[in-house]
Amino acid sequence: MADEYKKYREDPEYNGFKDDGTPLKLLIVDDSLAIRKVIRRIAEGVGYEVVAEASNGKEAELMYTKFLPDIVTMDITMPDVEGDEALEMIIRNDPDARIVMLTSIGHKEAVKNAIIKGAKGYIVKPIIGDQIPKLLKTLKRAAKK
């Protein structure tokens, strides 16, 4: 456990545990390996079980079907199949899917469309500093929707 995330791991508003104490399963989808590593480090540091990673929307759909995670973080802009397309494919097959979109500043319209299509929230990259508690709180809220 990363000591830097201890306060979040112990707080039910931020940690990666279900009410019964078992870890929430997370699928991380981003074309940037560096972003996936950052999200994995933070998520595992607060108790999430990262069940898989994907680098594009097509992989995301396959990994979702294989692992049935509790929550997905999904980059909006990716090669091959974009995040919003993958969101639609996953929601079509599982209307209860809990997907949080990741975006860079300046993609307000894409975020709005993703929320309309069924995303449970969004977080703005980069995920540093005060974005870390925002990420954790957004994931936890999405898990309860």
Keywords, separated by commas or semicolons:
145 residues; alpha/beta; Rossmann fold; five-stranded parallel sheet; globular
Task: Write the topology of this structure.
Blueprint: H1 6-9, E1 25-29, H2 33-45, E2 49-54, H3 57-67, E3 71-75, H4 83-93, E4 99-104, H5 108-117, E5 121-125, H6 131-144
> What overall form do the CA principal axes indicate?
globular
CATH superfamily: Response regulator
Assembly context of the chains: single chain
CATH topology: Rossmann fold
Helix proportion? 40-55%
Tally of separate domains: 1
Helix-strand makeup class? alpha/beta
For the terminal residues, how far apart are their CA atoms? 27 Å
The appropriate CATH architecture is 3-Layer(aba) Sandwich
Whole-number average pLDDT? 90
Largest sheet: 5 strands, parallel
Q: Count of DSSP helices? A: 6
Compressed to H and E, one letter per element, the order equals HEHEHEHEHEH
CATH class: Alpha Beta
Percentage of β-strand residues: 15-25%
Rg, Cα atoms, Å: 14 Å
Low-confidence stretches: none
Count of β-strands:
5
Sheet with the most strands: spatial strand order:
2-1-3-4-5
Question: Overview of this structure, please?
Answer:
The protein is an alpha/beta fold. It has a single domain, classed as Response regulator (Rossmann fold). It has helices at 6-9, 33-45, 57-67, 83-93, 108-117, 131-144, and strands spanning 25-29, 49-54, 71-75, 99-104, 121-125. The two termini are 27 Å apart. The relative contact order is 0.17.
